[in-house]
Amino acid sequence: MSEMTVNQSKRRFLVTMTSAVGGVAAVGAAIPFVGSMLPSARALAAGAPVEVDLSKIEPGMLLTVEWRGKPVWIASRTPEMLALLDKHDDRLTDPNSEAAGQQPDYCKNATRSIKPEYMVVVGICTHLGCSPTYRKEIGPADLGVDWPGGWFCPCHGSRFDLAARVFSGSPAPTNLVVPPHKYLSESKVLIGEDQAA
Ligand code: FES
Questions:
Q1: Distance between CA atoms of 94 and 166, rounded to whole angstroms?
Q2: N or C: which end of the chain has fewer CB within 10 A?
Q3: Where are the beta strands (DSSP E) in the chain?
Q4: Cα 8 from chain centroid?
Q5: pLDDT 10s digits, 1-32
Q6: Which phi and psi (to 5°) does residue 126 adopt?
Q7: How far is CA 10 from CA 61, 132, 163, 192, in A?
Q8: Does residue 125 line the site of ligand 1, with CB under 6 A?
Q9: Order of strands across the sheet with 159-161?
């Protein structure tokens, strides 16, 4: 291939690239308009409420959804799981959810929930922001015989029970955060908005 042919193909490449960049810029300029016509994606990013269908969650299982860029867990708690919740208050930092801002007032109760069978909570550790692991089993070898089920943070070992209340001695200072939410029906919950909104 002669030098001239190489230069010509380089030029063609540059011309093609310039048109492509121009095309991207044009698409970019169109996005705000399209966005205003279809607000869902932008609204979601800005924190719009997220509707969740609970009918697919098996008892004892955990569903994760995203709200405001954060994971929100919905744990389906069985009667057996709920029965264990009041057995370890003396091992918790804040058993009665006294710390302000960790839950809406309507979840400042023994189960930290509107409906005891569902725990709705932001899945971010209140220590340094890792995402804890769901450990619903009772007394597993690695967590000890007195483990009542809950969440374990692998980063620095914080422990939370099935109401997302932190165990004393954990590096996390507070219980996990319960986001605002409300039930739209028996099987639908809206994360990010409550009756007060
Ligand atoms: S981030 Fe969870 S224990 Fe440190």
A1: 7
A2: N
A3: 50-53, 62-67, 70-76, 118-122, 133-135, 150-152, 159-161, 181-185, 188-191
A4: 54
A5: 444 444 444 444 443 433 334 444 334 333 33
A6: -80, 5
A7: 58, 52, 64, 53
A8: yes
A9: 133-135, 150-152, 159-161
Task: For ligand 1, say whether the CB of 159 is within 6 Å of any of its atoms.
Answer: no
- Residue 36: its pLDDT value, please? 41
CA angle 30/36/42 to nearest 5° reads 100
**At residue 126, does pLDDT exceed 90?**
yes
> What's the alpha-carbon Rg for the chain, to the nearest Å?
24
Inter-residue contact 121 to 177 (CB < 8 Å): yes
Do 13 and 157 form a contact (C-beta atoms < 8 A)?
A: no
Q: Does the beta carbon of 131 sit less than 6 angstroms from any atom of ligand 1?
A: no
CB-CB contact of 166 with 156 (8 Å): no
- What is the biggest distance separating any 2 CA atoms in the chain, rounded to whole angstroms? 84
Distance, CA of 189 to CA of 168 (rounded, Å): 31
| Residue boundaries of the structural domains of the chain | 3-38, 50-191
Protein residue closest via CA to atom 3 of ligand 1: 156
Q: Taking Cα atoms as reference points, which of 188, 158, 192 lies closest to residue 50?
A: 192
- Side-by-side strand order, sheet with 181-185: 50-53, 188-191, 181-185
Extract the tokens encoding 71: 């994971």
The residues annotated with a catalytic role in the active site are 156
State how far the Cα of 124 lies from the Cα of 127, in Å rounded to an integer.
9
Q: What confidence tens digit (pLDDT) does each residue in 84-98 have?
A: 999 999 999 999 999
